[in-house]
Write a structure and sequence with these properties.
Length: 96
């Protein structure tokens, strides 16, 4: 659930923005898939257009967001990190 909270916090920061976003995530994790749905809803409400992350064309999304769970043990439960690099943002949670 921490990934959902981090994702929504990110979306709230972009209130009133526009552009296209692709969300990449592991659909086999129910919690991460839930976070992706919540993030997509929040981004749409903020004026973003969502692009299918599974079949994007080069340059199709202005921003790519990856939701991940830290498996290295570097983040404790309930912790998260948000790492922006160019047009890619990675949100990693310490637990799913």
């Amino acid at each position: 659930m921490i990934i959902a909270a981090a994702a929504l916090a990110f979306a709230a920061c972009g209130s009133g923005a526009s552009g296209s976003v692709a969300i990449e995530h592991d659909a086999s994790s129910r919690q991460v898939a839930y976070a992706a749905r919540r993030l997509a809803d929040a981004l749409r409400e903020s004026g973003y257009t969502l692009v299918d992350a599974l079949t994007p064309q080069p340059g199709e999304a202005d921003t790519r967001i990856t939701l991940a769970v830290d498996t290295s043990g570097g983040l404790v439960a309930e912790a998260f990190s948000i790492e922006p690099v160019g047009g890619r943002i990675t949100i990693t949670g310490g637990d799913d």
